[in-house]
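Justification of resources, computational component.

The compute hours requested in this renewal are based largely on the per-chain cost of generating structure records like the one below. Each record pairs the submitted sequence with a full structure-token output. That output is archived, and it is also reused by downstream analysis tasks.
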Amino acid sequence: MKVCIVGCGAIGGLLAAFLSRTSADVTVVDRGDQYLAIRDHGLVLVNTMGEKELLKNLRVTDSLENCGNFDVVFLAVKAYEIDALSTGLPALFHDRTALVTLQNGLPWWYFQRCGGSFEGRSIRATDPGGRLSKLIDSQRIVGCVAYPAAEVVEPGVIRHIEGVRFPLGELDGQITPRAKQISELLSEAGLKSPVLEDIRSEIWLKAWGNLAFNPISALTHATMAQIARFPQTNEYAAQLMREAETVANKLGVDFRVSLEQRLLGAEKVGEHKTSMLQDMQALRPMELDAILGTVIEMAALVGVGVPYLKGLYALCSLRDAINMEQAAENFRSSIGETGLSL
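The structure output for this chain reads:
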């Protein structure tokens, strides 16, 4: 099986490391320091025991156009990066290529191949102009939830913190041969990847915790365990999750675990910096629209008030804007120091 992983950050890099141990022919696509490090030195995985493994049997490129076609493409970039890549992604596809999405939050394709009154509706928060829906055939898409916690320690080095679950499913709920084949590949790699009939409910389950813990961590710099153990932030997270649960229920989603169990699960992850906190500290954009904006948009569709979610979105949006101004200033300063002009 020919496999391409677009985006070799924390989750994409973890997936690439595990898949490199299988019989699959694996190519990773990234850019900048991450691409250069993997190209020149290979990919390093630091496992949950702190042991390092150097993986050199990966093809790496910084161009979508020069990769060729693949049987399975794992889309592992941030949600806000997909639009810029959308015109290049079709170069990776042949007639039967499956596109497996791994983003946090609720995906742009949420209302595609689902039936119901919102069938085919575009989600503005993650697909503002509807371009993704037009360029990427929903028949290609397989939804997937990335549960592991990981981080990029330095360019080319991925640290696996915990978790090996990547449940997946077709958008229409069918158990298809291709879904089974992808599941078997991930199982061969040592990951747990059951094929689900309702992938949207599983996506909501992860998003349910993300929409509370990720933004709170970005504002407070606290780990998941710290947020869960501190009474005031624990109750605040619970209130955010209650609002989101009401929205999900209106859309026909039932969570397979209780709110209390979800909070305990977040605490068990331990002293882990959420992906949003990692992005905030690195002055990268935060995934606010995918994680919070989509839920707020869906709340309006089903007529549910979400004041706690809206307030948190406003605060984090300001923090994100300040960060982007600082990142731009840092870039201008670095250009000035080199004596270059724009």
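The first strand starts at residue 2 and ends at 6. The domain at 2-197 is CATH 3.40.50.720 (Rossmann fold).
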